[in-house]
Each structure stands twice: as structure tokens, then as C-alpha cells.
Design a protein that fits this description.
single chain; globular
Length: 632
């Protein structure tokens, strides 16, 4: 399947599901159950403009060079040392624009020449990490044409794993949770190491759509490349069954030739770069996730709601079309269901208590994870200590002194954000399950429904993707991420200048290089410990209104979780109450009134049939796509 055909298929199913959501949203009357959060989340998911394909791998394997080659432009920082210090999100666009995107949602436009200032580790080491007042950088957005990819796909360039900078690996892991697919970059120089295998195992828990690309193919002859690929495929063979393809296939590419081919639109260079095979695999992967996987998830959410609506309408129609005694029987059954629902899921219900206990368990685990984060055994502190110990010159030490405080703030800030996001995702998983249980209360048998589409490759990330950020408000999440770091930022960044004075930079106090370097190291270690102690105290010791930052975060998550549980219950209870009221009214109504109700219900059924017809078409398209997937 070529790119135009792929884009057309994806557009067809997306347009149909977008229209279905619009029709669902347009139907407002007393006979239709109110859509729950899973329907709204599915609507948000299918209306998303971009889906992320995360490019990751060990540092200096050529991730940024590969993406630059896809764009045919030197946009992302590259260097013989660790180059990328931030996440770059590259959106396929006909225009070129550049933005800083902060964790609170604020955006700041920058120029192309400023990309290195904000996203290069080399610049950060030379001039210090950029410090933003009252903001924390989330990622850098690049809008640029990517000729080989569909418009709906965004590439995410991550700093990498196995880095000297502990925050880099944490950043990469964090972005996996939102990945529709993963491109893992290797190079022929060294075999895959344990760190890479562990990361791949973690990535496969998020998505089965992962492909392997070996860069720098033009640096070695074909025999060497073939040997290296065979070696790495053997190392990765235990993970074959966990991938969507069911096998490990590593594909070589020359980023240098691909860059020139894209820039100059040269078909011969494109063939020599060996990118065409990678492109076919990548498009197949995009087809499986953006085209098929996400569409199937959205379809199932809409269809489950369709089942509830159809069952409710049929029940009301039967009541309005039958004798009074039948209508009374239907009302009595609904009353029994309502009472059972309240007993099991209401304020003192056993099933509700079980869900509440599971939420509490997730929140309690946050404390252990936070204490591990703010331990001196955590990779952030250990990595920084190791970096100080491995300094080889006073010049390197001086450069580190300019960035050490801001890097700590950035590292712990992003790790805290990741900790909160992970807790939120785990709690939302429980809430999504709770909502699904309650949704099934109203789902009955009907001849006027469409089959659920079974998904063989459904993972935790797929399950959460439709409900992500549905139960927690944006303001709530932002406050959890931002408050602790705002407290820490001021005293630590102020410490940079003080450190320079303390060490007597440029004063010539130490004359021998080894003595000077030892002094640098000692003072940097002391400063690191002081900064770390400040961070630890601000999060786990100091209190505001009798609570530490951690305790306040736990309390807010619990408040939001319990509030979400109440909202979910009340919505489903309201639907049941409304259905019972309508049935009881019909059981008491005379023949004329019930005939009028029947006509109203038939009019609603006719309107709803447009949703049903869309779902039938979507089911057919998904079946066709499933068959095409098998032949790809």
C-alpha cells in the first residue's frame, strides 16, 4: 500500500467516526441516555490532529540525524557528543514554525536559530540550562514538512537512554506512554546492550508497534552491516512474539544519503539510502495504529454507547406499544435494576468500596515512589555525582558549575511530573474500568446493534488512550506539576553565581591543575548535596498548612478521584432514574398518550438510525482494513 492509498483509508475511517461523534452529540432528548466520559474521550481521540511516533534509542545512535534526513533540513541538534537535551515534537506541516511548549500549556514562539539554545545539550553545558521564570519546558514543537509521512503523524525526537544525564532517560520513558508507535534506532558500531533491551521490553508494554532501524549504513560495507543486523536480531529474538509483526526485523539506512535525497528530491539517492523498505514498514505500522488500532478503539466506545441507546429506546417502544400490564412489568423490572444498582454501586455498595480501595492503593504507592525519587540512590543524584567525579579539567568543572543547579531543577521537576502523570494514569485505569462496569448495567440484548470489533493487539496504553485526562481537570494536573518546582527554583538558580564566587573562578587561587580540579570537584559535590537537600526538604519535609508537598499531592489526587467516582455514579444513576420515570409514566398513561409517546420514540429511533448506519459502515471498513493488514 502506497502513501496516498494509506492516507485515503485512514481519512475515510476517521471522517466516518468523526461524523458519528457529531451525530451522537447532536441528539439531545429525554429518551436518549446521556453519553458517558468514554464516549467523549473517544470523540476527542478521533478528532486529534496528530498521533505521536516516538523515535528513541541509546544516545548518539543517530536519532536526530535520521529525523533531519526525513525533513531534508538540519533542524534538530546533532553533535559527536550528547546533542539533544529536550524533547522535539515534529509536526508534519506545510509551514515552518518553532515553539517552546511549557507544562502549564503556555507556548512561546522562537526562531530556527534559537533551537540550539533551548534544545542542545552542548549549548546547555557551555552556557548553562535555560531558566524560565514561572514555567517549566515540556517540549519544543517544530512545524516542518515531512514528505514521507501522512499529515496526521508527528515524530517525537527524545534525548535517549543510557545517557550520562539521568533526566534524559526519564524524559524518553515518559513519552512512551503517549506513543502510537516507536522507532528504535541502532547503529552497527556496538551490539545491543542490557540497557537497550530493558528499554525495548518497557516500550513493548506500551505498544506492540515497534520497528528497528540501523543508521550509519554508509559508514560500513554491506557484509559488516549484514553481520551486525544478524547479531542484533539474534539478541532481540526473545521479544519477537511481543511485537505486532511477530518477528524482529532490523532495517539499515544511510541518513546522509536520505538527507540529500529528501532535500534534492533525488530518486537515485533515495534508492541508495535504502529508505524505501523502512518507509514501507513505517507506513504499515502507521496503518496499524493510526488507521486501524485507534479507529477500532473509538468504534468500540461508540458502539457500546449505541447498544445502550438502542436497548433503552426499544424498551420504551415496547412499553408504549403494549398493554398496560406489560408496561407495568417493564417498569417493575427497571425499578428492581435501579435498586440493585444502588445497593451494589451506591454510597455503601460493596463494589464501590472495592473500587475505592483500589484507588487508595494506587495513591499510597505514590509515597514510596516519591521517596525513591528523592533518594541519593536515585539515578538523578547518582548520575550527577558520577559526572562530577569524572570531570577531567577545571574548564569542564567551570562549565558544569553554570548548569548544575538548573539541571537539577529540570531533572527533578520532570521526574516529579512523570511521577504524578503515572499515578494519574494508574488511577484513571481504575476509573475507566469502573465506568465500563456501570455502562454495562444498561446494555441489553437487541437486534438493532452492531458487533464489537475484537482487537488482538490491545494494550494498557490503548485502554487508557480513550480515557486519558478525562477524569482529572487540567488545572488540577498543572497545579500538581508546577507548585513544588516554583518553590525550589528560586533558591537553587540563585546558587549558580554564589558557587562561582565560592570557587574563585578566574582568581588564580589554585595554581596546579590537579589541585584546582580537586577543589572544583569538592565544592561541586558540596553544592550538589546542598541543592539536593533543599529539594528533598521542599517536597518531603517542609509543610504548608500542616502538609508536605507530597501529602498535598496525595490529598488532591484522592479528592479528584473520589469526586470522579461520584460523578460517574451519578451520571449512570441519572440515566436509570430517567428510564424508570419514563416507563412508569407510560404504565399509568392512557392509550392515546401512549400512542403519542410511541410516535415520538419512533421519530428518535429514525434519527438514531443515522448513527447506527455509520457504525455499520465503520464495521465494514474495519473488517476490510483487518484483511488488508494480514496481507501487508
Amino acid at each position: 500500500m502506497n502513501k496516498p492509498e494509506l492516507e485515503q483509508q485512514i481519512q475515510n475511517i476517521r471522517s466516518l467516526l468523526q461524523d458519528t461523534y457529531a451525530r451522537i452529540s447532536d441528539v439531545h432528548n429525554q429518551y436518549i441516555p446521556t453519553p458517558d466520559v468514554s464516549v467523549r474521550s473517544a470523540g476527542n481521540l478521533i478528532n486529534r490532529e496528530q498521533y505521536d511516533v516516538v523515535v528513541c534509542g541509546e544516545v548518539k545512535k543517530g536519532k536526530s540525524s535520521f529525523i533531519n534526513a526525513l525533513m531534508g533540513d538540519n533542524i534538530l541538534p546533532t553533535n559527536t557528543q550528547v546533542a539533544t537535551s529536550q524533547v522535539f515534537r515534529i509536526i508534519n506541516s506545510n509551514t515552518e514554525e518553532y515553539y517552546l511548549v511549557f507544562t502549564d500549556g503556555e507556548r512561546q514562539r522562537i526562531s530556527k536559530t534559537e533551537l540550539s539554545k533551548y534544545g542542545s545539550q552542548v549549548d546547555a553545558d557551555l552556557y548553562g540550562e535555560p531558566v524560565f521564570r514561572h514555567h517549566q519546558l515540556d517540549y519544543i514543537e517544530v512545524r516542518h514538512p515531512i514528505p514521507a509521512l501522512p499529515q496526521s503523524v508527528a515524530l517525537v525526537d527524545t534525548p535517549g537512554i543510557g545517557a550520562l544525564y539521568a533526566a534524559h532517560e526519564q524524559i524518553t520513558r515518559n513519552y512512551l506512554s503517549n506513543a502510537s508507535a516507536v522507532i528504535f534506532i541502532l547503529d552497527p558500531k556496538n551490539p545491543i546492550v542490557t540497557k537497550e533491551r530493558e528499554f525495548i521490553e518497557s516500550a513493548l508494554q506500551q505498544t506492540k508497534q515497534i520497528m528497528f532501524v540501523m543508521t550509519k549504513a554508509d559508514n560500513y560495507d554491506e557484509g559488516v552491516i549484514a553481520t551486525m543486523i544478524s547479531r542484533d536480531e539474534e539478541i532481540l529474538s526473545p521479544y519477537a512474539r511481543q511485537t505486532a509483526m511477530g518477528r524482529i526485523s532490523i532495517q539499515p539506512v544511510s541518513s546522509t544519503l536520505l538527507f540529500d535525497a529528501t532535500k534534492d528530491k533525488d530518486d537515485l539517492l533515495l534508492e541508495m539510502s535504502r529508505f524505501e523498505e523502512i518507509k514501507d514498514t513505517l507506513l504499515r505500522m502507521i496503518y496499524n495504529t493510526v488507521g486501524f488500532g485507534i479507529s477500532a478503539t473509538v468504534y468500540n466506545a461508540f458502539n457500546q454507547y449505541n447498544t445502550r441507546v438502542v436497548q433503552a429506546l426499544q424498551e420504551l417502544h415496547t412499553s408504549a406499544s403494549s398493554q398496560q400490564d406489560v408496561a407495568k412489568q417493564l417498569a417493575a423490572k427497571k425499578l428492581a435494576k435501579q435498586q440493585e444498582f444502588a445497593q451494589e454501586w451506591g454510597t455503601n455498595g460493596a463494589k464501590l468500596r472495592d473500587i475505592q480501595d483500589r484507588v487508595k492503593e494506587q495513591v499510597r504507592s505514590l509515597e514510596n515512589e516519591a521517596r525513591a525519587l528523592f533518594s541519593q540512590n536515585h539515578p538523578i543524584f547518582k548520575s550527577m555525582s558520577s559526572e562530577i567525579e569524572n570531570l577531567s579539567s577545571s574548564e569542564d568543572a567551570e562549565r558544569l558549575s553554570r548548569s548544575i543547579s538548573s539541571r537539577l531543577i529540570d531533572s527533578y521537576g520532570k521526574a516529579w511530573k512523570d511521577l504524578m502523570a503515572n499515578c494519574e494514569n494508574q488511577v484513571e485505569g481504575v476509573l475507566i474500568e469502573y465506568n465500563a462496569h456501570l455502562s454495562s448495567v444498561d446494555a441489553g440484548n437487541s437486534d438493532f446493534v452492531v458487533d464489537t470489533f475484537r482487537q488482538k493487539e490491545r494494550t494498557l496504553a490503548d485502554r487508557l488512550s480513550a480515557g486519558r485526562n478525562s477524569y482529572f481537570t487540567g488545572a488540577f494536573v498543572t497545579s500538581l506539576f508546577a507548585i513544588p518546582m516554583a518553590i525550589v527554583a528560586a533558591p537553587l538558580t540563585a546558587g549558580i553565581a554564589a558557587l562561582g564566587l565560592l570557587l574563585g573562578i578566574g582568581s588564580g587561587i589554585a595554581t596546579k591543575r590537579d589541585t584546582e580540579l580537586k577543589r572544583w570537584k569538592q565544592n561541586l559535590k558540596e553544592h550538589l548535596l546542598k541543592c539536593y537537600s533543599q529539594i528533598y526538604d521542599n517536597f518531603l519535609v517542609k509543610t504548608t498548612r500542616g502538609k508536605t508537598q507530597l501529602q498535598s499531592a496525595e490529598e488532591k489526587i484522592m479528592e479528584q478521584s473520589m469526586s470522579a467516582l461520584r460523578r460517574i455514579y451519578e451520571q449512570h444513576k441519572s440515566n436509570l432514574d430517567n428510564q424508570l420515570r419514563l416507563l412508569e409514566e407510560q404504565a399509568q398513561a392512557d392509550d392515546t398518550a401512549r400512542r403519542q409517546k410511541r410516535q415520538e420514540i419512533e421519530s428518535v429511533q429514525k434519527q438514531w438510525k443515522l448513527v447506527f448506519d455509520n457504525l455499520t459502515k465503520a464495521r465494514t471498513l474495519l473488517t476490510q482494513m483487518e484483511q488488508q493488514r494480514k496481507s501487508l
